[in-house]
Design goal:
- Pfam families: Oxidored_FMN.
- This is Alkene reductase.
- It is a single chain.
- By secondary structure, this protein is of the alpha/beta class.
- 32% of the residues lie in helices and 15% in strands.
- Strands 3, 4, 5, 6, 11, 12, 13, 14 and 15 form a 9-stranded parallel β-sheet that branches. Strands 1-2 form a two-stranded antiparallel sheet. Strands 7-10 form a two-stranded parallel sheet.
- It is globular and about 65 Å long.
- It binds flavin mononucleotide.
Length: 368
């Protein structure tokens, strides 16, 4: 697959998102790579991996847990809640900056997607409703258990964990954070009218379902400044066994509530042809980053058109960046893209992580 972006393409124009000056509008989408150390400290290879992709307008890191309990969905996913984590993230941030890049850390809590054999603790969720999916635990593939419904007093400490992890990201020298409100994890579970059956201030009406995500965005923005905060949402996304019936109204409430904060960007993972995108697009006046969630032959053509029309401010691209560290250069010249190798997405070690060749390396190999 290849696509050429013209020199005057909108996606190649610079853009200011909050406090960050991005040199182009093709961002690297968050990608879990499951290579972190057992205690949640990122891999020693992570600095190299991210620095290789520093030409992205903005790198959004793999989902990074705000606490031990937040980190139980998959093996070897990183956190940012200990000094050791923070130290490694500062080395990663330094490597990315030295290579000319910019980086936001995606912060998550997995909620009911957690498994006690991974996190060591009982998973929690808005309501005691299990996700009908399996996960890879140290003792093999297992169904997810029924989570414990959070007591109302448990909720403020979770907001606090996001605030602290965001502070650590900034102290580590990163440029900002993205709150992970997408893909069936804790904040999405609260937004949903199916997985959230609470009858207190955090469930029921769209206002109540949006409350936790809004409180986290507000707390983090107050801590590190709104220009360093992004939010990712995926209305209607079925990942993690989600089957939301109401795919719009809690998101409308959320966007209206956080609009006055003037955060850096809203990142939406949705098909741009889906009704939810149209409904939410009209409500958001700040920078909007779109991830279409699909790799098609016409993807870059479609994203470029949306950028030209001003429908999106930037595009987030996942697998194409995973497999092409020099994606921006390849799009400039219309070079074929390396194909991502699914078998190494989550496998330990350097293969499929730091060894995807650049055009220059391919040319060198051919002439050798
Ligand atoms: C290997 C892999 C890991 C992912 N990890 C995350 C993640 O940590 N956080 C997140 O919000 N989305 C994650 N996603 C979803 C991607 O950000 C993106 O939405 C998806 O890959 C579709 O975009 P693409 O077609 O450009 O790859 C992941 C996807 C893949 C393939």
């Amino acid at each position: 697959m290849a696509y050429t972006l013209a020199d005057d393409a909108s996606l190649l124009e610079s853009i200011q998102v909050g406090d960050v000056a991005a040199p182009n509008r093709i961002f690297m989408a968050p990608l879990t790579r499951s290579r972190a150390q057992a205690d949640g400290t990122p891999s020693d290879l992570a600095a190299q991996y991210y620095a290789q992709r520093a030409a992205a307008g903005l790198i959004i890191t793999e989902a990074t847990a705000v606490s031990k309990a937040a980190n139980g969905a998959y093996l070897n996913t990183p956190g940012n809640y200990t000094d050791r984590h923070q130290q490694k993230w500062s080395e990663i941030g330094e490597a990315v900056h030295a290579a000319g890049g910019r980086m936001f850390m995606q912060l998550w809590h997995v909620g009911r997607m957690g498994h006690p054999e991974i996190s060591g603790v009982e998973p929690v969720a808005p309501s005691a409703i299990a996700a009908d999916v399996t996960t890879h635990t140290p003792s093999g593939k297992k169904p997810l258990p029924v989570p414990r419904a959070l007591a109302v007093d448990d909720i403020a400490p979770i907001v606090e964990q996001f605030r602290r992890a965001a502070r650590r990201a900034i102290d580590a020298g990163l440029d900002g954070v993205e709150i992970h409100g997408a893909n069936g994890y804790l904040l999405h579970q609260f937004m949903s009218d199916v997985t959230n059956q609470r009858t207190d201030a955090y469930g029921g009406s769209p206002e109540n379902r949006a409350r936790l995500t809004a409180e986290i965005v507000e707390a983090v923005a107050a801590e590190i400044g709104p220009g360093r905060v992004g939010l990712r949402i995926s209305p209607g996304n079925a990942a993690g066994g989600m089957h939301d019936v109401d795919q719009v109204s809690a998101y409308e409430v959320l966007l209206n509530r956080i609009a006055p904060l003037d955060v850096a960007y809203l990142h939406v993972l949705v098909d741009p042809d889906a009704p939810a995108f149209g409904a939410l697009r009209g409500l958001w006046f700040g920078p909007l980053v779109l991830n279409t969630g699909r790799e098609t032959d016409t993807r870059f053509c479609q994203l470029e058109e949306l950028a030209q029309w001003g429908v999106i401010s930037a595009a987030a691209v996942g697998r194409a960046f995973l497999a092409n560290p020099d994606l921006i250069d390849r799009l400039r010249v219309g070079a074929d893209l390396n194909e991502p190798d699914v078998a190494t997405f989550y496998a330990p070690g350097p293969a499929g992580y730091v060894d995807y060749p650049t055009l220059e390396e391919l040319a060198q190999a051919q002439s050798a």
